[in-house]
Structure formats: structure tokens, C-alpha cells
Amino acid sequence: MFGRSMQAVRAATRTATVAGAGLGAGWRGLATGATDKVAPWEETMSDEDFAFMREILSAPSPVGLEAAMTEGVLAPALEAVAPAGWAFKRYKGSASLVVDTDPGNPDDKLTVMVVGHADKIRMQVRSIAPDGKIYINSDSFLPATLLGNKVTLFSEDAASPGAYRAVSGGTIEALGAIHFASAAVRSGEKGVSGDSLYLELGVHGPKGKEQVEDMGIRVGDPLLLDRPIERGVWPNTFSGAYLDNGLGCFVTAQLAKLLAAQPDALDSVRLLFTFAAYEEIGRFGSRVLAAREQPDVILATDVNHDFNGAPGVADKRYPPLTMGKGATLASGSVTSESLNSLIMAAAADYAQGSIPVQRDMCGVDTGTDAMAGVLGGVDAAVTSIGFPIRSMHTVSESGHTGDVVAAIHLIKATVESCAARGITPAYFERAHPRLDNATSLAGPAVVPADDSA
Ligand SMILES: [Zn+2]
User: Fold this and answer.
1) Could you tell me the residue range of the domain that residue 360 belongs to?
2) What is the Å distance from ligand 1's center to 2 Cα?
3) Same structural domain for residues 307 and 418?
4) pLDDT score of 35
5) Is residue 451 part of a domain?
6) How many alpha carbons fall within 13 Å on the CB side of residue 193?
7) Planar angle of CA 275, 420, 413, nearest 5 degrees
8) Domain termination residue (choose one: 178, 194, 225)
């Protein structure tokens, strides 16, 4: 999630709370059909799927160097399942990947771009001090949460440009010790400034800076946290670094696998499984992909906040998104209400049971790649589908596998619904809701008795 703007947008738009329970009928109970089969989002994620999710989230793919995820993990996984005729598209300006189910692209076929972003917020070497301390840029991390964490620094070999070496085992530090911290920092009145962070490699002896430079470490080298996800203590939870947004790429890849195995829906809908770059610095990758591929519909899949689980924000009245209660669906900003209606209907009618959806509210900006259409100058119906996580942009982001699986099936249900209803690109041109046709809605006839006593 594109973080900095999100905070501003949330602050600027906290008006009335949007009621957000959505379609929860199938969540804890069974599917509406007379079956005892448990819905996929109610099951414990299999070890095989969890391992694939972990592999995607572990790929070292900082902003600008996303190929470890797109080419190292996603392309081989999807090449193994792709039917003949799917195309794997690459781009000059980034390591983005688009898997196109119908590169022939007949104009009357609805083209749906499902987009996760492969880039991770990165730290970067800013300056090497005379004693060998490697000062870093903390990008969109909360600086205090980085202290003490192990990282890997990736350094291009100046003697062999294009070849990278990895230095693991160092930690991020800033304060040195409580003994050197000011009283205000000790009490928590003051925090850790981003520009005080440095990589501690244990450099000692004379000419510290020269020793570091002799290794080939230089300004601009990226660093990533060493924190692969693990299953959590509470059922179906997991935590680690870079849920943002390996999870969106996992959702997109799992959807591709599911549709590859039952390709009927793809007879009338063209899918663009999209793994974009540069989201975290302003959604600069997906807008180019949208401009190139001209989708009719864009479904961004990205992490969202568990606002109910966030400490100290109750008075802000954020939408009541909660871990473990299903996928989230954005309304507001540039999202298409007709597309959202279609998605909610598809969620309710899904063959495997009603999919739990939590309605989110965005103000000016979705904070996600759903902006790709307008930013790329492409006419598309768009929305964001997400999963509430805790501690976003820290080393210990945590989420719920059920929410992630619900998001996968929410998009699948939407694609199947578009196929079953024969929806063409022109459908969205005529589907805009008419508020001038709204019917009157009265208040309740009777106020219920107070049974709280
Ligand atoms: Zn983010």
C-alpha cells in the first residue's frame, strides 16, 4: 500500500463511519447450499499454499529491483500451470510481469487486469561514516520499528556490473544504548529519527570507512529485512515482513492457478494477471501497464489496515475493518460503484458459499494500484480488494489466511459472474447508478424496546 498519501487521505476524509459488515452469512456458518463442505476461506491454509505464499513474500524485491519475485518465483510457478496460448509479457522500464490469458484480445471481450505489486519498501545506503557505520534511508518504514532487526544488504559488484552480492547478519541501530539516549527518548516522549538509522556490521579497527568501501558497499545499495513469515499463535494468523505486497501477488498468482485449472470462465473474459513495480513510491508501475494493456476493469489487490486492531485510533472512527472477517472492498475515490455492486452480488451467489466482504471507504485516493487507470489515462472500471493487516510497514506485519483466501475467491467469483452474465466492455458504460432514480427510504416504524436492563 502506498503509505504516505494514505495517512493524509484517511485524515482528510474521516467523516461518517460507513457501515461495514457486508455479506458475512457464509463466514462462520456453512455455505448457503445444503452441503457440509467447508468454504475455502474457513479452512486452515495448506502447508503447500503457505510455503508458496512464504516464497513470494521472501523474494528480495525492493522497489526498482522486483525481478527476484516476478522472474524468480512468479513466472516459473505460472509457466508450470499456464495453458497453451497464455502470454508472459515483459517491459523495458521495470521488472513487472503480465500474464495474458488471451493476447489476441478481441475487442468485444471484457479485459480484467488483476494487479498486485511486487515491490517492497526498501532501505538504502545513504552515507558511510569514517568509523564504518553505514547510514541508511528508511523509506516508508516507521523508524523505531527497525531497531535491532537483521537485514541483508545487496551490493552490486563494481568489478562486475550487474552482479550482486548479499551481506547478511548486520542489524539496524540508531541509539547505541539506553545509556546514551536522552531523557526524552528514554521516556518515549521523543522517538527515533529516520536519519539516525545505520547498519551495524561490527566494523572495527582503523580506516573503518575504507574497510567497508573495500567490500564494494556503496551509496544506493538496497537493504531488506530478514523476516520470512511464520504461522502465528492465534488460529490462521501469520506474521513477518513484506505482507505488503507479496500477499497481493500471492492472491493474483493463486487466482491464475485456479482459473488455469478451470478455464471455462476465460472463454468470454480476458484476464491480465499483473505483477507491478514501483507501487510504494507512487504507483508508477501499474499506470504504465494499464496504459500499455488497456484493460476495461482493474482490480487492485493489496493489503489494507485492521483499523479495529490499531492502537489508539478509536476516536478517529475509521471503517471497522478487522482481521479474520474477510476481504475488504474499497468504495470512494475513483472506484466504480457499478463494479462494486457486481462484485457484491457475485460474492453472495458464489458456488462455494457467500464470501465475507468488509466494505472500506477511501477518500481522494485508494492508496493502491486501483489508481492505475486514471493515472495512466485509461478508461476502466476499477476497485481495490484487500485484506486487513496489522503493523503495516514494520518488520512484523500480521494477517489472517482466511482473509487472503476470501480475496482470491472474491475475484474469482467476479470473473465467473462476468462470464456467466456475458458482460462486455460496453456494459460498464451504461451501468452507472442513477441517484435521481433513488426511492424513498423511511426510518423504522417502531423503536425496539430497551432489553439491556
Ligand atoms: Zn505499502
Assistant:
1) 3-120+242-432
2) 5
3) yes
4) 57
5) no
6) 4
7) 45
8) 225
CA angle in degrees (0–180, nearest 5) for 25-26-27: 95
Nearest to 95 by CA among 120, 131, 58: 120
Nearest CA to 402 among 352, 360, 368, 356? 356
Residue 280 CA, ligand 1 centroid: distance in Å: 5
**304 alpha carbon to ligand 1 midpoint, in Å?**
9
Distance 444 CA to ligand 1 centre (A): 42
Ligand 1 center–CA 413 separation, angstroms: 26
Read off the pLDDT of residues 299-318 as tens digits, 9 standing for 90 and up: 999 999 999 999 999 899 99
What distance in angstroms lies between residue 283's CA and the mean position of ligand 1's atoms? 10
- State which H helix or E strand residue 2 sits in: none
pLDDT at residue 26, rounded to an integer: 37
Identify the burial level of 62 via C-beta atoms within 10 angstroms of its C-beta, where 0-12 means exposed, 13-18 middle and 19 or more buried.
Answer: buried
Give a yes or no: residue 327 inside a domain.
Answer: yes
Instruction: Report the separation in Å between the CA atom of 121 and the middle of ligand 1, taken as the mean of its atom positions.
Output: 7
pLDDT tens track for 317-337: 999 999 999 999 999 999 999
